[in-house]
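Reader question, answered in our methods column.
A reader sent in the components of a multi-part assembly and asked whether the whole thing could be modeled at once rather than chain by chain. We filled in our standard form and ran it. Here is what they sent:
COMPLEX SIZE: two components
ENTRIES:
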Amino acid sequence: MELSVVWFVLVAVLFTGFFFLEGFDYGVGVLLPLLGRTDDERRLIIGSIGPVWDGNEVWMITAGGAMFAAFPHVYATLFSGFYLALFLMLVALIVRGVGLDFRSKQSGPAWRSTWDWLIFAGSLVPALLWGVAVTNLLKGVPIDAKMNYVGTFFDLLSPYTLIGGVAFLLVFIYHGAAYLVLKLEDPLAGRARRTALTVGVFAAIAFLALVGMTYIYTDLFASVGAGVSLWAAVGAFVVSYLAMRAHRTGWAFVGSGLAIVFTTAAFFWGLFPRLMVSSLNSAWSLTVTNASSSPLTLKLMTVAAGLLVPVVLAYQAWSYWIFRKRVTLRDLEY
Amino acid sequence: MDELLLARWQFGITSTYHFLFVPLTLGLSLLVAAMETVYVRTGNELYKKMAQFWGKLFLINFALGVVTGLVQEFEFGMNWSEYSRFMGDIFGAPLALEALTAFYLESTFIGIWIFGWKRLSKGMHAAAIWIVALSSNLSAFWILAANSFMQAPVGYVLRNGRAEMNDFSALLANPYLWNQFPHTVLGGLVTGGVFVMAISAYHLLRRSQVEFFRPSLKIGLICALTASLLVVVTGHRQAQYLAEAQPMKLAAIEALWETADPAPFTFFTAIDSGKQENRGGVSLPGGLSLLVHSSPTGEVKGIKDLQQESEKRFGPGSYAPDIPSVFWSFRIMVAAGCWLLAVAGLCAYYLRRGTLEDKPLALKAVVVTLAVPYIANSTGWYVAEAGRQPWIVVGLQRVEQAVSPTVSAASIGITLVGFTLVYGVLAVVGIYLLGKFAKQGPVAPFAAKPAEGKGVALWN
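And here is the structure of the entire assembly that came back:
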């Protein structure tokens, strides 16, 4: 296998890990002011992701760094092209990260509720924007012969990509609710479960709309594997929802996680061998061939990733193991 | 060209702001790790309290460093897409390696450290903060490896219309990196040491929690004094290295228009960039030669000759940075360094005589000195980055060739204003929180409000 193909897969894996982990993180952030009625409840909700959200966010940073190293043209085209969207995302992530750290460092309801709503917005906006971004990659955006994005911010918004954003957001919220059911005690856990059951219905509708519009607006289903993967995502989500109804919370979380994993896999599968589709001329799409780094850089990076990714997975898994118990007021640091 | 100007301002503002938090993260993490290690070794609760108190301040700073670092990573793609295309093959690798080797570790173990006081053994918990401290410094190494390529490109070949890597080990062995990295890490230790000293001095002046802040000040002092001495040594080596690697930067630092032998060291002067001359001022004859060649004679190349050489190689154009700002930034940095050495030396003297706490003036000087490492770090960074202008990668790509061609001035303007506003608010909030906890000292419970009935005092 060509190393550029290996890196296509690795970038896909990094995004999959990112959406799986930060997906529930974002969901928890959106649910924070909605589920948590008292200050202690909100502290518990934040405490559920407290030890891990920073590590989760690095999946995105690594995906960005990997794109820079392995596909510099994609890095350049994507971030200069989706300029204002990325700016919104960065501002959201800034206030979110600072909010998670700062909100409990000062008492006073105004201080805390301000940060709570900033965490809410800072989680909602990226979740939405990633859905918009991923669907845009597949649907195609105006990229010229020099690999430059020649559209505007509003060209990124279409019925299809907006459904993509909403579907991502709702699935992440559901995923976050499932996580909270696992991590909290009653009555919060019960409330999170009821929320999951409600949000789950809307998430399923949005998800099916996404699948249908993907069929209409993109060529994803031209690849059998991608199509199967996307249907598998729908299946995983349904199983998750049924498990949630049956109080099989662990399975519900695994199911929502698999739905995210299969969706991400389907999109990258549908993209391959392209990374960004040009809507102007298919020859101008960015592919593993025309957008990749030199063989030497790819080789070096492959060795590094081969050695380091398993280590990263091991200690991140370990950190989840340390904090595996349900969160109680006793363990709060934020 | 508006886009270029705005993109440059944006990069200047966001990276200078980011670099306000980085040095303290580098230095203070090591100090906290050392404090916690003493606690694990001796079982003395005082050092646990120290690790927790200084750790708390560290975390507030760390959070701001992390979120502003996010912007840095994506800004290359957003505003400098032509740079990313031209250099990605080389520049992307250290960034990706930073994420894989350092950033994952740092952010996973910071979570473990914050929340793990009761869940881990003492030794494991101390190991967590060591991992955070070392990976933060490793992060700095990768960033400087990338930056060093921009300053002194090595291990590349021009192919397929871009710079491609042909020797990764050359990238890691880049002499610029090995001059810059120790200087930066030591600058971080100075910042961390002075930070601990200044807050301790504040409390000693008020005779509050003396049993805690007396030993804290001592630890900060040892760190700051040792590191500021070494920062001078590494800085001196760097200047000597610049003479061969980036003579234009050195000439700009000294506002040396004409090649000279022996070359004088100018303390201050009035620079007229238009006429390319200096008027008046005070200088030490042969001083620059002494610095560069370790002998009172020896040639140092001037700006005019270097400009001509560059024109011969690269064609017409200006190849000199903005001389006055580089000249004065360097002097501010050096003056800040001297101030730091003087204050640290004075404190060490009084401390040995056991009279430091009776010298309110000295303690007040220490409090004021809190600002000084920040000034030194920012001006030092300015000299390094502005000194390579007009190049983004010296000799390979000029800044105006690097900017994103399709991003409008309006877009950059919006994000410039947006980031500046957000950063401004964060600065106020961050300084407020740091001030609040610094003044409070370690006795107050860290949770603003303990949960009712459960007696949850955080950090116990």
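What stands out: The mean pLDDT of chain A is 93. Chain A touches chain B through 73 residues (CB under 8 Å).
Send us your own complexes using the same form.
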